[in-house]
Design goal:
Elements lengths: L7 E3 L9 E3 L3 E5 L1 H18 L6 E6 L3 H16 L5 E4 L29 E9 L3 H10 L7 E9 L11 E5 L7 E5 L1 H4 L3 E5 L10
Length: 207
């Protein structure tokens, strides 16, 4: 997005041009440096848990899980002096609420390698109910049978409805269901940051 000033941030529905929220109504949680440090820490944790980077593939869930996946892959590649494949996953057709939930159009799935026998790091910006992750795992197996699927999330806001837990978390954030956790990444939004927006009307923004 190109329209930014000191008091305005894109809303969770910012794909609709001109739809913004006043930053005065949101509580800042993470800034660009916090996000950078979280990505670096998660990258190190992934390397340690997997005893290196062999057979790793990072797959980001559209929308903001994708830039996070590329950032993680870049950091792991830098540390390990290798190249980590990155995939992009559109889960729209796999959601159990596809008739009710509207995800931004125009996204496609691109998985550059077979996932069979790979260690897949599934990446999303926020985990909430767990339904997005469940849909993502259904979509992943169409591209091979991974040796393992691990989950990395920048924010874990709780309120799980399914028995799903991330393996790597940037920050655990207790929230109420009527709050929005807004992650903004410069690749899509021209700004890095995480805010909590109080008294949200749409409980389905982060899942």
């Amino acid at each position: 997005m190109s329209k930014h000033n000191n008091n305005i941030i894109p809303s969770p529905d910012s794909d609709r041009e001109g739809f913004f929220l006043n930053i005065d109504d949101a509580l800042p949680l993470l800034d660009a440096n916090d996000i950078r440090r979280a990505v670096t820490r998660i990258a190190h944790e992934i390397i340690e848990r997997n005893r290196g980077s062999h057979d790793l593939v990072i797959v980001g869930i559209h929308t903001r899980g994708v830039p996070l996946a590329y950032r993680l892959a870049e950091e792991i590649s830098r540390i390990e002096n290798t190249i980590i494949p990155v995939g992009e996953l559109d889960i729209t057709s796999h959601r159990d609420d596809a008739g009710l939930y509207i995800r931004s159009a125009g996204h496609t799935t691109h998985i550059p390698v077979s996932l069979t026998d790979k260690k897949v790091i599934l990446t999303d910006e926020v985990i909430f109910t767990g339904r997005t992750v469940r849909a993502a795992m259904d979509a992943l197996v169409e591209h091979g049978r991974p040796a393992s699927i691990q989950l990395a999330a920048l924010i874990d806001r709780g309120h799980r409805e399914l028995p799903i837990r991330p393996d790597y978390v940037g920050k655990n954030l207790p929230t109420s269901k009527n709050e929005r956790v807004m992650v903004r990444l410069k690749e899509l939004d021209s700004i890095d940051g995480v805010w909590v927006y109080r008294d949200a009307k749409d409980e389905g923004v982060n899942e």
